[in-house]
Structures are given as structure tokens and as C-alpha cells.
Predict the 3D structure of the following.
Amino acid sequence: MKRNLRIILLLSIYSAKTSLSNWFGALLFTFGKLIRFGMFLGLILLLVNETGAIKGYNTNQALVFFLTFNLVDTVTQFLFREVYRFRPLLVSGDFDTILVKPYHPFVRILFGGMDLMDLGMLLFYVPLTAFVISRSGEISSAGLTTYLILIFNAFLIAAAFHILVLALAVLTTQVDHAIMIYRDVFTIGRFPIDIYRDPFRSIFTFIIPVGVMVSFPAQALFSLLQPGLIIFSFVVCAVLLIFSLALWNRALKKYQSWGG
Amino acid sequence: MQPYLQVFKITILEYLVYRLNFILWRFRVVLSLLVIYFLWSSFFENTKIILGYSQEQMLTYILLAGLTSNFVLASRTQDVAGEILNGSLINYVLRPVSFFRYIATRDLADKLINLSFTIVEIGLIVLLLKPLLFVQTGLVNYLLFDIFLLLGIGTAFFINLTISFIGFWTPEVWAPRFIFFMIVFFLSGAYFPLDILPERFYNLLLLTPFPYLYYLPTRAYLGISTHLIPFYLIASLSWFFITYYLCALLWRKGLRGYSYYGR
């Protein structure tokens, strides 16, 4: 474990150096992300102030949903950025050289490219989220603890999704759209899952658990989540992790080295 | 004309080769539209009018803006940046065809494919969700919609090409496009009609090209003040020509200093 962490750190330093070699581009992308964040923030503030609430959530609560989405999304991108670069490794045959290395392939293809730009965004999102939560009225310590646990649970679900994408990539050599579809589906969580009408709401809660990843933590924070749904979140996470790892193992058994 | 017809046909056929990619892309577009649709629907649950818009006007705006934005922004011009960087641009400029017409033909094919799919998708959304929609009866509004849409398509085409021409001077071509799309989705009115913004900000926005891409055509369908039509027409035309001249200028300047080995 310690050895793997050291390798991940080393790979992340290399990744950061690569990003910094093109610092202007990295700066522009970060600026673009800030523009997107600022504009959605403005939209939410404008609309919730005008209408009083969004599905019963006041301004601060709506902001917590939005910030939780940004937090989970950014941590996920920070941790699993290398997944976006997996296809070239696969089709060029370079994946073979990773498989023969004396460490788990996830060290390289899942965690091996932590993104410095996203870390910068996190330094902005984390204090902002903490500030908005602190201004959101009475938050119980149980609510806050459940929020943090469910956020961690969301990271694990995100990890499962990324492993699924990797497995699908090995099986089909297609990964670009799969990961982008995950990103697009995840944007559903930018707003409380309650705004979606059934059957969409059920699909995004029980089948593609975006609601579990983003809305459930925020609802738990405001003590609006039933205990049964908290347990359901852990079950979803466990099932997805087991399924994604099983599919990954199956994909590896089918792998025949595509390129090289 | 014949070469461009062939380019048109080939571009359409390319989509038929990469069918899965295209279907997944359309899935992503529908998903984005649904998010905005549901967001606005939820706001109208407790109130009839928001910032001057009734529910039927707003949902019509969101769906029509989804349709027009797909038509206006669908483009193959982003390929040009890569072609400048990898040198394949040389292959085009040496051929006895107009590069601009070649790209415009590819764009047209792309837009028609996207438009036909968008019509089906929005049709399905309307069938499934049965939203209350505003149906315009004034013929003038349809005419204005067409005029503003054509000008918006042209302006978006030249802006897109101009961004790609950055590739003549720097390999950093994706970040400016990323920023452009971030800005365009908000300031062109994909998520909301721009006139719900504070008046001063809205008036400032009218001095930029963004509202003329697909906000104005969509707003023209819903109805716009008659006394503002000359201003909108002049502004749309101005941005069309400004972006055209800027694009042509960058193309000439870029091409003058462009060289590539190994092609």
C-alpha cells in the first residue's frame, strides 16, 4: 500500500510537470472552469431569489447541492484524470508495458495522472462549500458526519464508474464517449435530484445513482434523508464496486493486446 | 459545384460509419436539454410567471433554443485547428477548391444531420413530457426567426473558424475553444432567455455577438418589440460582417506565414 502510494505520488508529480510545461493552456482551462462555475452560480442565485425556492430548497440549500456537485466532480476528476488518457495507451499497445510492471495497473491507469488544475479548483471549492454550509442555518453534527461519509461514498461510486469505463475500454477499445457520457450524466446532479420527474428521477437515483452521489449527501446534511436511503447508498456503492471489479477482471482475461 | 456535392455526401457518409459515436453524442445532447427543461419546469411548479415569462413561453424558449443552438453551433470547423497543427491543411489549400466553401459544405452537412436528429429528439421529448408550448401565429415572427437564424449561423461559422485559425500561431487551440463554448452556452441563451438578466447587463450583452447566435432567433419566434427590430437587424448584420472580415484577415495572415514539412 505504502509503495503504491509512493508510485502514485511520483506519477502525479510527473503529470503535474507535464501540465506545467503548458502552463498557459492549463491556466485557460482553469479560467474556463471558473467561468462555468460563476455562470451557474449566478443562474441559481438569480432564479432562487426570484422564485423563493427550488423544489422547497432555499438559496443556501440550493447552493449546497450545487457546491457538493462541484466538489464530488472535481475530486473525481483530480483522482481519476488518467482514465481520460487510457485509450491511446490501449490502442498503441503501451498498456502491455503497464501490465508487466510489478504493481497493480490501477496505480497507473486509474490514479496515475492526478490533475494539478483540479487541485487548484479544489482549494477554491472546499472553503467555499464549508462557508456556505456554515451559513445554512442549523446543521446537526450527525447531519454533517453523514454528509462527509456520503461524500466519501460518492468518491467510491465514482471510482467504480471509472473502473467500469476502463473495463469497457479494454473490451471495446472505445472509452472517449463512455467517460464523457458519465460526465454528462453526472451533470444531472448539479441541481437537486427532486427537480426531475419520474421515471427520470428513479433512473438517476436507482439505476445511474447520480442522486446517491450528489443529492443524498446534501439532503443528509439538512436531515432530510431517510435512514433507509443512507443504507441504500452504501449498498449501491458496494454493488457497483464489486460489479466493476468483476468486469475489470473479466476484461483483463479477454485482453489480447490491441496495438503495438 | 460537383466537388462540394461530393464533400457533402462524404461528410454525411462519415456519420454512418461512426454510428455509435454519433448516437452517443446525440444522447449527451438530449441529456443536457433535459436537465435545463426539468430545471425550469420545477421553478414553475409554484408560480405562473417568472421574470416576465409564462411556463409555456419559457419551455418553448428552452426547447426551441435547444433546436436552434444545435443548428447554429453544430460545426466541423474545430477540425481545422488540428489540420493546421498536423499539416494536413496543406492538402486542402493545394487543391483547386475554395477552402472556405469546402469547410462550409462540411458544416452544412453536419448541421443538417444534427438538425434532423434534434427535431426527432425534441419531438420525442414533447410527446413524452407533453409540455404546454407556445405556438406563434404571426408570419412576420417566422420570417424574423429565419433571418436571424441565418445570420446567427453565419456569425457562429466565422467565429468558430477564427478560433481554429489560432492554430496558425500557437498549438494551444483547445483551451480557447473550451472557454468560447463555456461563454457561448450562457451568453447566447441556451439555459435561459437573456432578457431575464438585469437590464444593464442585458444591454451590454447586446453589444457582443453572443445574443445574435441563437437567442435572438428564438426570441423572435416568441415575439420581440417592433421598434427594436431595426437595431437587432443592424447588430446581427454588423456582427456577421465583422466576424467574416476578422476570419478572412486571420486566414490570409496565417496562411502567409504557414509552412509544414513532411506532407
In short: Chain B has a mean pLDDT of 87. The CA atoms of residues 198 and 204 of chain B lie 10 Å apart. DSSP finds eleven helices and two strands in chain B.
